Amino acid sequence: MDLAFSDEELAFREEVRAFIRDKLPPDIRERARRNWANLPKEDHVTWQRLLYERGWIAANWPVEYGGTGWSPAQKFIFEEECAKASCPRIVPFGLSMVGPVIYTFGNQEQKDRFLPRILKSEDWWCQGYSEPGSGSDLASLRTRAVLDGEDYVVNGLKTWTSGAHKANWMFCLVRTDPDVKQQEGISFLLIDMKSPGVTVRPIISMDESHYLNEVFLDDVRVPQANLIGEEGKGWTYAKFLLGHERTGIAGVGRSKHRIQILKDIARQEKSDGRPLLEQADFARKVAALEFDLTALEFTNLRVMAGDNAGQGPGPESSILKIKGTEIEQAMNELLVEALGYYAAPYERDWLRPDWNEPPVGPDYAPGLMPEHLLRRASSIYGGSNEIQKNIIAKMVLGL
Ligand SMILES: Cc1cc2nc3c(=O)[nH]c(=O)nc-3n(C[C@H](O)[C@H](O)[C@H](O)COP(=O)(O)OP(=O)(O)OC[C@H]3O[C@@H](n4cnc5c(N)ncnc54)[C@H](O)[C@@H]3O)c2cc1C
Question: What residues contact 312, with CB distance under 8 A and at least 6 apart?
Answer without folding.
Answer: 240, 243, 244
